Each structure stands twice: as structure tokens, then as C-alpha cells.
Amino acid sequence: MNTPVCSACKTREAFFHRRYSGETLCRKCFTQSIEDKVRATITRYRMLSFNDHLAVAVSGGKDSLSLLCILAKLKRFRPKTTLIAVTVDEGIAGYRNEALEIAAEKCEKLEIPHHIVSFKDLYGFTLDELILKARSKGLTELTACAYCGVLRRKAINIGARQVHASKVATAHTLDDEAQTILMNILRGDVVRLAKEKPVTSQVHPLLVQKIKPFCEIPEKESALYAYVKKIRFQDTPCPYAGEALRNDVRWMLNRMEAKHAGTKFTLMKALERLRPAIEETARREEFRTCVECGEPSAAQLCKTCEMLRRIS
Ligand code: SF4
Ligand code: ZN
Ligand code: ZN
């Protein structure tokens, strides 16, 4: 049997078949295609201005480290753009330390400054302490990921402000985006659905604009990029991993994708087309400032302060 040849360079041996596009790529053309795609996404959604000081949210996992490496490479096309990595230390014993060390090592190699913000400094609790406290009070309706997600979103925004970033890039992949879209539909949360964008709107002066340069990269390809480029990343799962609804939605979307290649893209494109209609509904929700911490909030009290009040 003949070894398949790369459909791009037509010389090297292919190792990856991209089902949704029909391409069969060698390692070099595959990694090049990911870098080209990220560059095209940044241009299409006008994610960057020529002189942005960009904070990159780096968790130490495969997606964020691949993103950091690609942005460091793309910097040669944007010499006035500066990068800084921001890592959130949630305070998860036996898990977060390894990720912090991997992230720091990569930043040093790429000569990118690294800033760490911790839950403990910002909120007075590590995630471990917070979960223990919530459980001891019998508050079991929210999962660790529900607390972590809310507190981390805020921490990334504060961290980005601390380093005076003009924007913050997160490594949300096509899979993350498709899952979030479907989860918001299943929860009936139209306001959050409308907010789900490759570039967030500037709704509050304290909210740093968020961009998602990986929003068109399937998670599988981001992992493959890290593997081919031999990027060291943390692959031990978080001890709290497993938000019930997201896991179910991930499983369902992966099954759909296996049967109908391109499903995740279709979902994202559908939201793009629906956006003008649903944005009207979302606009009715006014953005204000939390009465307790002064951070941006959709209600009088932001979600973080609401959670912290309940457990204290
Ligand atoms: Fe936080 Fe959940 Fe992710 Fe762990 S798996 S880091 S608790 S969101
Ligand atoms: Zn090739
Ligand atoms: Zn608050």
C-alpha cells in the first residue's frame, strides 16, 4: 500500500487527515496550517491593533501554551505588539504548581514576561479552601468548576489590568466555543449566548477586551500542534475536573463530529448569523459596577462577591 503524500507540499509523507476539509497533511504543512489559520482568524475578526500590549492567559495546558508559542511567532509580523503571559493560580494542591512551573519555563524560553495572580491574594481563599468551606456549610449545588470559572474570569481580567494590557487573549478552542454555545442554549441563557464572541465588546471601562485567536482551531488539532512542536504541557487532569453539563455536551458534540464532520464549525457559524437578532435581547441588560468590590458586574453584586458572601 502506498504511503499517502501531503496534499499541500505534495512531497512529504502525510500523517494527518483533516476530515472536515479533506486535506491530508505532513507535519510541517500541518503546523504551518495552524499558524496560518490563527493569523487569518486574528485578521478576520480584527483582533489586534498594530501596537497592542497583549496579555495571554496561560494555564500551562496544551492549548494555552500552543497559543503562546504561535503568538510569539506571529509577533514578527507585528513588531509593535508586546506580549505578557498571565497565569491564574487558583490554589489547587498537587495540580496547579506543576502547571505554574511549566508556564514559567516556557515564558523564560520565549523571553516573554510572566505575571501570576492568585485566588488567595485576590479573594482571601484558595480554591481548595473555598470548596472545603462551601461543603462544610452544606452548599453542594454548585460544582468546584462553577466557583472556579467565575473567580478565574475575574482574576484574568484583574491580572490583565495589573500588567496594563490593552487586550487579553485566551486559548478557547473551537470545541470550547461550540460547547459553550450549546450549554447556553440548553440553559436558556440568551444573554450569555450573545456575549459569546471571538472578540468581546467593550461594555465596561474596567473590562479588558478579550480575544480568542484559537476559536476556529479544533481542540484535537491544538493538542497535535503541541505534540508535533514538542511543547511541554501539563496533562494531568485537575482533581475537580468534570463539570457535569459540559462533559455531556462535549461527549455529544464529539459523537456528532465523528458522524458529521464540521458540526462544531456549523454551530459557531450559526451563532455568527444569529448574533444580530440575539444581541438586541442582550442589550437590554445593563452593565454596572459591583457595590462590594467595584468590578464590572451584570447585577448589583457581582457573581464572585455573591459566591464569597454565601460561603463566609
Ligand atoms: Fe477550575 Fe474545574 Fe478547570 Fe479545575 S477543571 S481548573 S476546578 S474549571
Ligand atoms: Zn506537506
Ligand atoms: Zn463584586
Describe the structure.
It contains 12 helices and 9 strands. The protein is of the alpha/beta class and 312 residues long. It has a 5-stranded parallel β-sheet. Strands 1-2 form a two-stranded antiparallel sheet. It has a two-stranded antiparallel ribbon with strand order 8-9. Helix 2 (62-74) crosses helix 9, helix 7 (174-187) packs across helix 10 (244-259) and helix 7 packs across helix 11. The longest helix is centred in the C-terminal third of the chain and has 21 residues, at 263-283. The protein is globular, with a radius of gyration of 20 Å. Iron/sulfur cluster binds at residues 90, 144-145, 148-149, 238, 240-241.
- Overall number of structural domains: 1
CATH class: Alpha Beta
Helix content: 40-55%
Approximate shape: globular
Beta-strand residue percentage: 5-15%
- According to CATH, the fold-level topology is Rossmann fold
- The side-by-side strand order for the widest beta sheet comes to 5-4-3-6-7
CATH architecture: 3-Layer(aba) Sandwich
* Rg, alpha carbons: 20 Å
How many helical stretches?
A: 12
Helix and strand element order = EEHEHEHEHHHEHHEHHHEEH
| Class per helix and strand makeup | alpha/beta
Bound molecules: iron/sulfur cluster, zinc ion
**Mean pLDDT figure:** 92
Gap from first CA to last CA? 67 Å
The number of strands is 9
Query: Low-confidence runs (pLDDT<50, min 5 residues)?
Result: none
Under CATH, the homologous superfamily reads: HUPs
Query: Largest sheet, if any?
Result: 5 strands, parallel
